[in-house]
Design brief:
The structure is a homodimer. By secondary structure, chain A is of the alpha/beta class. In chain A, 44% of the residues lie in helices and 18% in strands. Chain A has three domains: 8-165, NAD(P)-binding Rossmann-like Domain (Rossmann fold); 170-273, Orthogonal Bundle (6-phosphogluconate dehydrogenase C-terminal fold), CATH 1.10.3660.10; 282-356, VC0802-like (2-Layer Sandwich), CATH 3.30.2130.10. Chain A has helices at 16-27, 39-47, 72-82, 97-102, 145-157, 167-198, 208-214, 224-230, 232-254, 258-273, 298-308, 338-347; strands at 8-12, 31-35, 53-54, 62-65, 88-91, 108-113, 134-138, 161-164, 285-293, 313-320, 326-334, 353-356. In chain A, the strands form two sheets. Chain A has an eight-stranded mixed β-sheet, sandwiched between helices. Chain A starts with 7 loop residues before the first strand and ends with a strand. At the A-B interface, helix 6, helix 7, helix 8, helix 9 and helix 10 of A face helix 6, helix 7, helix 8, helix 9 and helix 10 of B.
Chain lengths: 359, 359
């Protein structure tokens, strides 16, 4: 009796995402070949253990295309024509409609792992990059179900949370939750920086709320111009809606419509509080809010106090107040630990409040 | 030889801010009287130790008006007319031009402590609320210098960082760094919530960047309608500039102006990276960036590792990636601790990078 040979995969484009896919595949026992337009990058991926071999593999049963978005279609057409007849091909580009429209082939499944890293390039690759990430797949009416399920199985084996939706819906959603927020943060930061050149004290007045709102503007511009152009229709439509909403608020402000402003803020508050927390079993989770001074050491103190109380923190964020050096630590803990957490925190002079997370 | 009697202060309006001022004054040895439109609230402030006595004090040398903004002018006019002839009066309202215009009196100094708390009301009062906070003072050409320096001395004794500027400039600045970001976050959150009612998966795609941008929308609407109306001109002007900037980006996106988009994002990135950190001696600080999986426990692990390495963390924030479950912990530590920090983190498999903070 002999062991069955490893399943074979190939990667085209061995940067951060391609390299991470290679590491995850090899961890799962696959044989992985890879190529890159830049031969040094492919060699580096081999050196880092993301590949078993540099080069094409005509026997690969799954091919990941992780090139820049503009090169996906050409690479996929070639692989679909010259690869094994039962192979499946998927990609990782952040905008799906143009690619899916050009590649409506039974053995192609569009994909978008919603994972990134501050580090660019293959040296930032990590086999665990996709654990807990949402990985969108965009099958069409022509997609072969077995091709889809093969890609789904691989993606799930990486620890990702796969979600299927039409390409156009994906593009509208990422315009809303990713592209437009990014552009808006950049616009706000630029305005403030412009104002600060005349008013040096301005940024001293910028407290936690402003820092939160502009934080994503600190990211590498990298692929953003491509994402913006590939998704231009959805982004333009979403920007129009944002400008309408902001314009509506402007009218309420100038016309003194106190009730209207209050209604918008109340509704936004409720929606933000109901934003699903990133926890595995929210029905078993309790949210604990701890008002804290926004100063060094508080975070370590609270996490240590809870660690001593044997309370496991599943999620944590710091809600800075809009003004000034106060904030709230928002913790998600197992419901069975809630009593211990409250007791430990109250014993150190904190005033925690509880809220059951909606299932 | 007898001890000199305590200096006497009074507070009008004993809510969160008034109560915190009372606690801070008493900690500094003052005798504090206070009144509130709601007698139960004044009694509660007395019970909590924020006051020595409920009632007016004709001998108070400093009077803080901490009522809702709409009641400041009337209260101040009365106190200036009937209080001690050498007393000074200050307020805490978040918009200064209307108040300073109505009260251009030598013994009145407008003020705005940029501090708040998620807790509302006197039960959230805290003597340390103002430590490290920026406290704007808005003297005019008519302000008596000795009145100004008396208010400055008291505010500084609370641990606040006092900054003087004209009222109109203050109002323009808070429109930029506080009011408009808050309204924009509310508009974004509302749009996403609207879209999510039709597309249930939408908010599953909302990663750390979206969460950061909308976090302030989770705050209590409380005084926001009043702030918006009192500062309507500056807010409208700033919203117009924001809509211009967003509209400019929209044009670049629809016209395919890749270079223009890149230039905006590069400029915003540089400005955000240069946003001053809230540290006391930035010339002696090192910023450490640690790429981390955006999962429970990492924060506690990193802070604990550094604690074990005897490294003091002065500031900490989590930079979520725009998409997916990866992020970067950004830490400010004393430059002399940088080696120990790097060594402790590298020993646990992290890959920290260093940057000297600009002085």
């Amino acid at each position: 009796m002999t062991e069955s040979p490893p399943r074979r995969a190939a990667i085209i484009g061995t940067g951060l995402i391609g390299g991470s896919i290679g590491l995850a595949l090899r961890r799962e026992g696959w044989h992985v070949s890879g190529v890159d337009r830049d031969q040094h990058r492919a060699a580096r991926a081999l050196h880092l253990g993301a590949l078993d071999a540099v080069g094409a593999d005509p026997d690969a049963e799954v091919i990941f295309i992780a090139t820049p978005a503009g090169a996906v279609v050409e690479a996929a057409v070639e692989v679909l024509a010259f690869g094994a007849p039962d192979s499946v091909v998927t990609d990782v580009a952040g905008v799906k409609s143009p690619i899916v429209a050009a590649l409506d082939h039974p053995r192609f499944v569009g994909g978008h792992p919603m994972a990134g890293s501050e580090q660019e390039g293959v040296d930032g690759a990590d086999a665990r990059l996709f654990e807990g990430a949402t990985w969108v797949l965009t099958p069409t009416a022509n997609t072969d179900p077995s091709a889809y399920s093969r890609v789904l199985g691989v993606v799930t084996s990486f620890g990702a949370d796969a979600v299927a939706m039409p390409a156009a819906r994906h593009d509208g959603m990422v315009a809303m939750v990713s592209h437009v927020p990014h552009l808006t943060a950049a616009a706000l930061m630029t305005l403030a920086a412009d104002a600060a050149t005349e008013q040096a004290a301005l940024l001293r007045l910028a407290a936690g709320g402003f820092r939160d709102m502009t934080r994503i503007a600190a990211g590498h511009p990298g692929i953003w111009p491509d994402l913006c152009l590939d998704n231009r229709l959805a982004i333009a439509a979403t920007l129009d809606r944002l400008m309408d909403a902001v314009g509506g608020l402007r009218t309420m402000v100038t016309e003194g419509d106190r009730a209207g402003i209050l209604a918008v803020l109340e509704r936004a508050r409720e929606a933000r509080l109901n934003l699903p927390a990133r926890v595995l079993h929210p029905d078993e989770m309790i949210e604990i809010r701890v008002p804290v001074p926004d100063r060094p050491g508080v975070l370590a103190e609270v996490t240590t106090v809870l660690g001593e109380g044997n309370v496991n923190i599943y999620d944590l964020e710091i809600a800075h107040s809009a003004e000034g050096p106060r904030g709230v630590l928002v913790l998600a803990v197992d419901a069975t630990d809630a009593g211990a957490a409250i007791s430990a925190l109250s014993g150190r002079g904190y005033h925690p409040t509880l809220r059951r997370l909606a299932p």
